[in-house]
Structure formats: structure tokens, C-alpha cells
Amino acid sequence: TMPKEPAVLRQNILDTTAAILACGIDPKKCFLFRQSLVPEHAELAWILGCLTNVPRLLRLPQWKMKRASQNNEGTVGLLTYPVLQAADILLYKSTHVPVGEDQVLHLELAQDIAQHFNKKYGEFFPVPRAILSEL
Asked: So what family is this one in (predicted)?
């Protein structure tokens, strides 16, 4: 949600891809793609954002913490980022999502959004469950 220099962003994408491959992810056995090249992520985020109420987003602790660190001038991107995360999960009809404790509330938002969408339009999205990582 913070502005990045385009050259730095491009290099970060390459570095992250290299790290993923170095960890042993085999692109012959899984899909490896750049999310920003898939417009459906942003499109679904817009649709889901139109179904998500602002008070629900304002209760997320990440919003409160980041907003405080930005002198009470939190951006719309910061507020709506959890909806984009929900779109990332729901777009692929994910049933189980590995998360750390710090992301449980964002997954709960994705669950709430899926349930709201399904209630309004009929069963479409599975309600994803958390797979908590243990460190």
C-alpha cells in the first residue's frame, strides 16, 4: 500500500521469484505467475468491496496500527487491502488457506465476504478454512 519506484518494484518481483525457486518450488508441478498480470484479482476485489461495509474494515487491527503510524492519514488502499486478499483467496475457490496468527482476522473477513456473497447470489464461493502454521 506504499508507493514504490517502478524499477525497485520490478527488481523485488524478480528477487521474490528467485527466492521461491531457490526454496525448491518446481514450476513444472505448480503454477507460478505474477498476480498483477491477472486482471480478475482487481475486478473481483472491486465487486467484493461493493459488498463489504466500511465499519467492518475499520475494526481490523492492521488498519488501526498502520493508520496510527501514518499520523491518522491511512489510505484507501490500506483500508481495502484485506478485500483484495479476500479476492485473491476466493478467485481460485480456495477451501483451505495456510495463514499465520497475524492473518486469521483477514481470513475471517474472506469467510464473511464469501458467506455474504453466497447468501445474496447463491452458493458460489467455498468458505475457506485456515491452516494455521506452527512456528
From this structure: Belongs to the class-I aminoacyl-tRNA synthetase family.
Query: What are the boundaries of each domain within the chain?
Result: 1-32, 35-132
Global pTM?
Answer: 0.85
User: Which class is 35-132 in CATH?
Assistant: alpha beta
Q: Where are the alpha helices (DSSP H) in the chain?
A: 6-22, 39-49, 54-58, 61-69, 76-91, 104-121
Q: What is the DSSP letter of 128?
A: -
Distance (Å, whole) CA 110 – CA 122: 16
Please give the Cα distance from 101 to 74 (Å, whole number): 23
DSSP 37: G
Task: Read off the amino acid at residue 9.
Answer: L
Phi, psi of 96 (to 5 degrees): -140, 135
For residue 98, give every residue at least 6 positions away whose Cβ sits within 8 Å of its Cβ, in sequence order, or none: 131, 132, 133
pLDDT of residue 75 exceeding 70:
yes
Cell numbers at 1, concatenated: 500500500
Residue whose C-alpha cell is 521474490: 16
Between 69 and 49, the more confident residue is 49
Q: Which amino acid is at 37?
A: L
